[in-house]
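Prompt: May I have another protein with tokenized structure?
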Amino acid sequence: MNPIESPCILVCSIDDKTGYCFGCGRTSREIGAWLSMTGDERSAIMAELPARLETVERKPRRETRRARLAREKAEGAGS
């Protein structure tokens, strides 16, 4: 079985203006259905993501999990 390619980068926050995730560019519906999609469906969405990401405000309005983990790691290193 082939692994399912995913564009997720753990920046899971949806832009209110576009409806796209700040990190990967998918819609919340696409994110929820990702595992049940065919490879062709996922590939078609993956092809659209770079253009979608150009339309979102690149800064989420809240701290993401990735940013929090990096901050906590940096704070722990300073101790």
Remarks:
- The helical segments are 28-33, 39-53, 65-77.
- The CA atoms of residues 69 and 75 lie 10 Å apart.
- The chain has a mean pLDDT of 86.
